[in-house]
Amino acid sequence: MSIDALEYLRYGWQLITGARVRGEIQICEERNRDVLPYLDNHSDPVILDLANGSLRPQYTILAAEGRKVFGIDLVNRPAAGLQAVGYKIARALMRGKLRLLLNDRSSRLICGDVALLPFHDGVFDLVTSVAAFEHFLSVPATLAEITRVLKPGGLVYARIHLFTCPSGGHNVRVAEVPLRHLPKGVEPWDHLRKHRLPFFVPLNEWRASQYLEEFSRRFEVLKHYCAMREGEHLLTPQIERELSEYSRDELTCGAYVIVARKPS
């Protein structure tokens, strides 16, 4: 099953109405609440937005706030074609809502590999990543690079779309966050049970405990929690029995946040 055109229309409507932007701003506000108490009153932190994506919403929001932010992703390269035009329109809608029509700050967007960062050691105060870690095929290598480019005492904020949640296979819907409805004929947690639907993006399939353990190897974990839940209404006793190796918390946590600090 591919994500159909109707889903992209819904996504576009969310951009036009500002719903998608409000969601991204909420994530930014949540990050501020999580990291600001640990930034030691740093008034002008240097920030890296890791794997900013084609839409690059968090990079755009941080730039709108006047932050010194850099974005890195393999998609940060010149592109042509209908898809490139579509993303350009989507970014214009995003920037319009943020009053950034003429201030894209694209000069700080870098095409690069998150597991081989093109930065000197110890240059960033904060590395932030939203809905990207689940796509990193070498999480340890990426964390090693984050450790290297962070200043001593620097912070990393990772908001991870967990593979174990109903939408964790990234093959159900793009327009519902959190997921509330499944397409006709699609069973809940297909990617953990039936494996009938193909994956369309790289996924490392890590669980929350694996991320936490790997972060703990290199950082002082300051806090970790589930920031968004989904699918509780889909979780029947039968499905729980089928997926007994997973806890209810794992199966319903759609966004897992880790806030950690590099040792001084």
In words, what does this structure look like?
By secondary structure, the chain is an alpha/beta fold. It has one domain (5-261): 3-Layer(aba) Sandwich (Rossmann fold), CATH 3.40.50.150. Helix content is 33%, strand content 19%. The chain has 8 helices and 7 strands. It has helices at residues 5-17, 19-35, 57-64, 82-97, 139-149, 208-218, 237-242, 248-252, and strands spanning 46-50, 68-73, 109-111, 124-130, 150-160, 220-229, 253-261. The chain has a 7-stranded mixed β-sheet, sandwiched between helices. Helix 3 links the parallel strand 1 and strand 2 (68-73). The protein is globular. Mean pLDDT is 87; it is low at 100-104.
Brief descriptors of the model:
264 residues; Rossmann fold; seven-stranded mixed beta sheet
CATH superfamily: Vaccinia Virus protein VP39
- Principal-axis shape equals globular
Briefly, what CATH class?
Alpha Beta
Order of strands side by side in the largest beta sheet?
A: 3-2-1-4-5-7-6
By CATH, the architecture is named 3-Layer(aba) Sandwich
Element order: H for helix, E for strand: HHEHEHEEHEHEHHE
Low-confidence stretches: 100-104
What share of residues are in beta strands? 15-25%
* Total tally of structural domains: 1
Helix content: 25-40%
Backbone CA Rg: 18 Å
Which class of secondary structure composition applies to the elements?
A: alpha/beta
CATH topology description? Rossmann fold
Strand elements, count:
7
Number of helices: 8
Major β-sheet profile? 7 strands, mixed
